[in-house]
Every structure is written in structure tokens, then in C-alpha cells.
Design a protein that fits this description.
single chain; alpha/beta; Aminopeptidase; Alpha-Beta Plaits; four-stranded mixed sheet
């Protein structure tokens, strides 16, 4: 007796739907339940202290001799004036003249240390006349503090000092030693700043339990099918490689051009690399990002990501169609320089292009170079690797230190979804990866689409309410780190801190 094929197909469909439904029902949230806190009252002078810090023209330059050393020095002197308790309680070491490392001795020498990092250099201003207020005026208007560095990264630096000043004023004594690592050249690579600070710590036998730096933020309306803001915590940074592609050939007069010009060769090479990028994948950090976010999606999104065994190919394809999500799942390929020719009637004998790759952690500089060579092996070109750096180590996403960061964010920022993510750019934090397994990149800015354009752009600003949350975040990081009971012979007890109001926040 044979069964009707239509009946078999119907039964198979029912089984498939049942599997999809069961897997979706078992797709549990990765958000921790917390007792939320209300930030301590903000000193009315705190926004004005930030505004004053934004007035110092600590503009970064690739050539260190070109920076305004007086502005950098004045900024550091201002820190001493504005935060006297920090400077009384902490040891202070200048690194390469302009970077600063503060050390707040903990009460338990066996409990490890916490590094809180930021930088105070800022990028130049291209169009100051387009700002509503001067980029270095430090104006407060309508609950916002305006100025270059308000988002990147003076607000983080000053919030660190405000938070420590408040803890010290309340009589708090940290169990773990706390370091404030304030770099001065992050915008040009951090080699003289954060890299030198990390070397100093290593030379003095310091292996921090955790490092907290900039890199992620609270995104508002950026993740489809998730109604809540999403706090993205950077757990790794992409690598970096620029490759010069050069073609040398016969030049000549444009009236009798050769069959193939150097420009033809280089543009063919560039287009071939664009048409054949490295493979996209949902594995690694991005896979974990989805596991944290997808359970908070609506029914359609939750069902899709709960059943990657069936829909992985379709979802990967869909993510490649948007530049932002495509960058999250593959090593990106971006032509950035094209150079050839000096006159409109002369065929140039030489043409060159530079292609920049941002490398995901599962791949390496060598992998990218092998890919480039395989794609362009038949073309008469030469390849010249230029600036390069490997992806950073991936910090753990399923241990107590990531949980601490996640819990702290959810305590101080109401109603946010927290997820790890891969930072597409570079920050100072990569320099600390050699001395700490746990390097997390996050500051609790709330960024809308409009705000994203203000970073390094026009009318950079931060809301006072957001700044208040930042101060609470850094205070709570220190308290939560002290309460983490992993120290030998310690019960995780911490000394008294400024009083906060707690209330339940469920997952």
C-alpha cells in the first residue's frame, strides 16, 4: 500500500513547521535580569567642566612635532584643577609627555586590576563655519554640550574623572586597583599613547582583569525588528591592510592609444576584487551578535534566526545586500586611491590604485594577500602591501567579565538589549589586547542615525542626560568589578559607595 505523494508532502511540511516552532520556542533570551539603578545626582558644574574640556584644541597630527603642545599641556593642567580628589588619591604617571596613567591602589593586592581607557585628542575641523556654535567654544544649549570631542572621546575621558571624583568623595575604596589610561594620539593610531601605556603596564607586571574603552554605543532604531535600543559591546576589532596595485606599461599619445593601457589594467584589477570579495560568514563574533539580538526580535525575525540550520544561506545573502551588515559578516574590500595621468592627451605609462581591506578575526593579512594574488595572477601588475595590522583577539562573550559589562549597561541604561559585536574600525583598545584577555569596547552614548553623522562631523554634541548615564556607568563598573567574587580569599565585598535607587529590570 503506497501513500499519496501529496499526503507525504503535507506530513513533511507539518513536521518541518513543528521543528521550526519548537526551535523558536527554545530560542531563549541572552539578556541578564538586573536590579536597575538610578544615576546619582549630577553636580550642576559637571556639564560645565565637560564644556570647558572641549575648549582645548588638542587636535591630533600624524607628525607629533606638529601638535599644539601648549594646548595638550593646558588640558592636563585643567584636569588637576577640575578633579582635585582624583589627583590626591591616585598616583599619576606621564607617558611620552602627553598621555597619562592614573593608579588608584586597591585594598586587595590579589584581586587584579581594572583599566578604564579613553583619549583626549580630537580630529581636525574641516568646516567650522557650518557649526551652530564654534567647534571649540564648549557651548551648553538645550540640554546638549557642543564641541569637537563631545562624542569622540573627551566626554568619556571627563566622565571617567567625574565618576572617580564622586567615588572618592563618598569615601569609596576599591578592592581591585583601578587604572585610568588617558591616551593622546588615538586618532592617528595610538602608538605613542595607548601602546606605550600598555608597554608600561606590562613592564610593571600588570595584567588587567578587564579593560574598558570606547568602540560601541547604544544604537537607537538601528536594528530592524527590535523595538528597544541595542547596546553594542565591541569584543574584537577588524584587521587592516592596504595594498597598492601598480601597472607599468607603454605610454604614448592619446590619438593612437595602445590596446591595453596601464589604466585599463589597474581598473580591471580593482573591479575584479570588488566583484570577488572574500567569503561572507555568520560564524564567530557576528554569529554571537545574532544570538544575543534575535531572541528580542518580532516573531518573523526570531523564527528565522532560531533556525539557521535551514535558513543560513538565505539570511547570509540578505545581510550582504546592506553595506553595514555586509561589513559585519565579511572582510571588506574598498578601493580608496586611484592615481594616473598628468595630461588629457597623454596615455600614462604608470597607473596605481590602493585597495583597503578590513579583515575579520577568522582571517589574516596573509589570507587577504593570497586572495588578492589569486584573483589578479593573470594581470601585468605588481602588488605592494602597505599599512597593515592583524585582527585583534576576540574577548570572551560567555564569561563573568562580559556578563559584568552587560549587567552594568542594563543597570544604568533602562530597557536596552545588549549584544557583543565586531568593531569595524580601530581604537586604542587593540593595544591592550596583549596584556588582558578581557578587552571590551563600549561607552553608553545613545546614538540615533543623526548622531552618527556628528562623530568627526559638524555640530558634535552630547546630551547632559547621556553624560549623566556615562558617569553612572563608570562608577558601576568599578563597584561591580569589586563585587565579582573571583579574588582568592575574598567574598566580593566592596566598601560603601554613593547611594543609588534600585528597581527591577527583567530580561
Amino acid at each position: 500500500m503506497s501513500l499519496d505523494p501529496l499526503l507525504l508532502a503535507g506530513l513533511a511540511l507539518l513536521v518541518l513547521l513543528a521543528v521550526l516552532a519548537i526551535r523558536t520556542a527554545m530560542f531563549r533570551t541572552r539578556q541578564v535580569a538586573v536590579r536597575g539603578i538610578d544615576a546619582p545626582d549630577l553636580d550642576p558644574e559637571a556639564p560645565r567642566r565637560l564644556a570647558r574640556a572641549l575648549q582645548f584644541k588638542t587636535i591630533t597630527q600624524r607628525d607629533p612635532s606638529e601638535i599644539d603642545a601648549d594646548a595638550y599641556r593646558a588640558y592636563r593642567e585643567y584636569l588637576e584643577e577640575a578633579f582635585p580628589k582624583v589627583h590626591d588619591a591616585m598616583d599619576r604617571t606621564e607617558i611620552n609627555e602627553h598621555s597619562i596613567l592614573y593608579r588608584w591602589e586597591g585594598t586587595d593586592s590579589d584581586s587584579g586590576s581594572v583599566v578604564l581607557a579613553a583619549h583626549y585628542d580630537v580630529v581636525p575641523v574641516d568646516a567650522p563655519d557650518q557649526w551652530d556654535h564654534g567647534p571649540f567654544d564648549g557651548v551648553i544649549e538645550d540640554d546638549f554640550v557642543y564641541g569637537r570631542g563631545a562624542l569622540d572621546d573627551k566626554a568619556s575621558a571627563i566622565a571617567l574623572f567625574e565618576s572617580m571624583e564622586m567615588l572618592i568623595a563618598a569615601g569609596y575604596s576599591p578592592r581591585r586597583t583601578v587604572y585610568l589610561a588617558i591616551g593622546h594620539d588615538e586618532e592617528v593610531g595610538g602608538e605613542d599613547g595607548a601602546a606605550a601605556i600598555a608597554d608600561y603596564l606590562e613592564q610593571h607586571g600588570v595584567s588587567p582583569s578587564v579593560v574598558i574603552d570606547e568602540g560601541g554605543a547604544i544604537t537607537v532604531g538601528a536594528v530592524p525588528d527590535v523595538s528597544e535600543p541595542v547596546a553594542l559591546v565591541g569584543v574584537a576589532e577588524k584587521g587592516y591592510l592596504s595594498v597598492e596595485i601598480r601597472a607599468d606599461g607603454m605610454g604614448g599619445h592619446s590619438s593612437i592609444p595602445p590596446e591595453q593601457t596601464s589604466i585599463d589594467v589597474v581598473t580591471t584589477a580593482v573591479q575584479r576584487l570588488r566583484d570577488n570579495p572574500l567569503r561572507a560568514s555568520l560564524s564567530g563574533v557576528t554569529g554571537e551578535t545574532l544570538q544575543f539580538i534575535a531572541p528580542e526580535m518580532g516573531p518573523a525575525g526570531k523564527t528565522a534566526f532560531a533556525n539557521l540550520w535551514l535558513l543560513r544561506g538565505l539570511i547570509t545573502w540578505a545581510l550582504t545586500k546592506d553595506p553595514t551588515t555586509d561589513a559585519a559578516i565579511r572582510t571588506t574590500t574598498a578601493p580608496t586611491i586611484l592615481d594616473a595621468g598628468v595630461k588629457d592627451n597623454v596615455v600614462p605609462s604608470t597607473a596605481r590604485a590602493v585597495v583597503n581591506f578590513r579583515i575579520r578575526p577568522s582571517e589574516s593579512v596573509k589570507d587577504v594577500m593570497d586572495h588578492v594574488r589569486s584573483q589578479l595572477s593573470d594581470l601585468p601588475i605588481t602588488l605592494h602591501p602597505q599599512q597593515q595590522g592583524e585582527p585583534t583577539r576576540v574577548s570572551p562573550m560567555n564569561d563573568e567579565w562580559f556578563d559584568l559589562v552587560q549587567r552594568t549597561i542594563r543597570e544604568v541604561a533602562d530597557g536596552v538589549v545588549v549584544a557583543p559585536f565586531l568593531v569595524p574600525g580601530t581604537t586604542d583598545s587593540r593595544h591592550y589586547a596583549s596584556i588582558s584577555e578581557h578587552v571590551y569596547r563600549f561607552a553608553p552614548f545613545r546614538l540615533t542615525e543623526d548622531d552618527k553623522h556628528r562623530i568627526h562631523g559638524i555640530n558634535e554634541r552630547i546630551s547632559i542626560s547621556c553624560y549623566r548615564t556615562m558617569i553612572a556607568y563608570y562608577m558601576q563598573i568599578v563597584r561591580n568589578a569589586d563585587a565579582l567574587g573571583d579574588a582568592p580569599g575574598s567574598d566580593g565585598a566592596a566598601s560603601e559607595a554613593p547611594e543609588v535607587t534600585a528597581h527591577e529590570r527583567s530580561a
